[in-house]
Amino acid sequence: MRVAVIGAGIAGVTTAYELARQGDEVTVYERRGSVAGESSFAAGGIVSAGHIAPRVLPALGGFGGWRALAHMPWLWRWWRAGRPAVLAANRRALQQLAHASRERMLELTRALDLEYEQEPGLLVLLRDERDLKAARAPLALLAEWGVAHELVDAARCRALEPGLAERAPVHAAIHLAQDGVGNCRLFAQQLKTQAQRLGADFRLDAAVRALVPGARPGVVDAAGRQREFDAVVVCAGAQAAPLLAPLGLRLPLLPVQGYSVTAPLRHLDGLPRPGPRAALIDERMGVTIARLGQRVRASGCAELGGKAAQVELEPLRRLYRLLEEWFDGAAVTREAQHWKGAQPALPDGPPVLGASGAPGIWLNLGHGASGWTLACGSARVLAELVAGRAATIDLERYSAARLR
Ligand SMILES: Cc1cc2nc3c(=O)[nH]c(=O)nc-3n(C[C@H](O)[C@H](O)[C@H](O)COP(=O)(O)OP(=O)(O)OC[C@H]3O[C@@H](n4cnc5c(N)ncnc54)[C@H](O)[C@@H]3O)c2cc1C
Q1: Cross-strand bridge partners of residue 297
Q2: Does residue 20 form part of some domain?
Q3: Which of 187, 219, 239, 378 gets mutated to test ligand 1 (max ligand atoms within 8 A of its CB)?
Q4: Domain for residue 108, yes or no?
Q5: What is the distance between the alpha carbons of residues 382 and 201, in angstroms, rounded to a whole number?
Q6: Residue among 40, 247, 296 to mutate when testing ligand 1 (max atoms within 8 A of CB)
Q7: Residue 146, phi then psi, degrees to nearest 5
Q8: Whether the predicted model's global pTM rises above the 0.90 cut
Q9: Partner of 176 at 20 to 30 A CA spacing, among 4, 154, 251, 265?
């Protein structure tokens, strides 16, 4: 089959790889000059099947202030998706996809010898007795789902993460040994090379202006030229709406902005500040801290309705404060890089995977705060569906129809 993939973030690159691997003739259109140049650029890096939040959650005390009010219809749907039965079903569906995704990522890592600063181990930090109490429900779910985990005390946390600051407010943690961290952008770059080896054609600086549904769906490029395919898969992340709206597909897809700070680790200068060994989540603050090779990255802060170009200082200051609180002095902050990116968020959590409803047009988008975690599994599902095979997971929670 001749298949077009629109967008070369982590969703598009993994989809292109899986399609090429099953023998499809793949053309990828990416408006940027490189892969993983948007949401997949400097995301937190956490890959977790044990700690998966179904919905984007307000971090550090809010959803970005008054600007969030402009998104009341989305917030209303978000709030309704918090009803216990809906939340539980979405959480379970996402956990299963995340598990399948992590397995596929490991398979690819081994088979293709990929190196992307991956490190196993995730601590979900609990600051005090209140956090520990709140963790009872997620712990019960992990046990029910058979996810390997361990509730560890402060001393064990320090043994697992010897770089934790002496005064770090660690009371306990959920240790997820099979989860961990990896550099999403590096992975995308390497998988792109592998997809190219299988024949995939990556067209960079190639924006798609429009899609033409039909038995032979078409892609219209910026110059107005149309090319026909057997299938088109839209992986355009938070920017998918302008492509889908003319087809009558009005998905409640909202860019929820987040920030990351990435800095070299100071121990390279010979000082005894090892920083994190793998990945940590400060559950209460909604912030992740992870080691990426010789660097540390802190990431978080959900902001509804902001623009990527408008960088606010306060969220960055918060990330610095938390980095210092957990790993004092570990980062060379004068050399830090700041990044603001959008989580492509749907109000209830699960992404949209599968047929769009418009003939020949398929969707793999809306992965919110877990797009890196879910990428390899989602791509596998898409490739199976495009080939006409039954998907290995139940797709009910991932349909576009649920959002109409
Ligand atoms: C601060 C932050 C921290 C995060 N931390 C984590 C984490 O720790 N773990 C995790 O699992 N996830 C995390 N995420 C979420 C994850 O980064 C995203 O869900 C994921 O990167 C989305 O990938 P994507 O491929 O769907 O979108 P993108 O990476 O945005 O890719 C979409 C691509 O489509 C291209 N495109 C759009 N329109 C067109 C067009 N018309 N023509 C051609 N190309 C087009 C864009 O240029 C872009 O390259 C985080 C996100 C943020 C913002």
Answers
A1: 262, 290
A2: yes
A3: 239
A4: no
A5: 18
A6: 40
A7: 75, 30
A8: yes
A9: 265
* 266 lies in the same domain as 194: no
> What is the C-alpha to C-alpha distance for residues 263 and 198, in angstroms, rounded to an integer?
35
Task: Of 177, 156, 187, give the one whose Cα is nearest residue 48.
Answer: 177
Q: Which atom of ligand 1 is nearest to the CA of 242?
A: 41
- pLDDT tens per residue, range 352-383: 999 999 999 999 999 999 999 999 999 999 99
Ligand 1: list residues with CB < 6 Å. 6-12, 29-32, 36-40, 43-46, 207-208, 235-239, 243, 258-260, 288, 299, 341-344, 365, 367-373
In a domain, 261, yes or no: yes
Domain boundary among 324, 344, 364: 344
Q: Say whether both 327 and 352 belong to one domain.
A: no
Angle at 292 between CA 287 and CA 293, to 5 degrees: 160
CATH assignment at residue 60:
3.30.9.10
Any idea what the CATH number is for the domain that residue 32 is in?
Answer: 3.50.50.60
Q: Ligand 1 centre from 131 Cα, in Å?
A: 30
Distance 169 CA to ligand 1 centre (A): 32
* Burial (Cβ within 10 Å: 0-12, 13-18, ≥19) of residue 221: middle
Q: Are residues 163 and 245 in the same domain?
A: no
Express as a percent the part of the chain with pLDDT over 90: 80
Structural domain harbouring 194:
2-40+186-249+348-403
Cα 38 to ligand 1 centre (Å): 5
Question: Strand, helix or coil at 393?
Answer: coil
Residue 256 Cα: closest atom of ligand 1: 53
pLDDT at position 56 is 67
In what helix (H) or strand (E) does residue 298 lie, and over which residues does it extend? Answer: strand 295-304
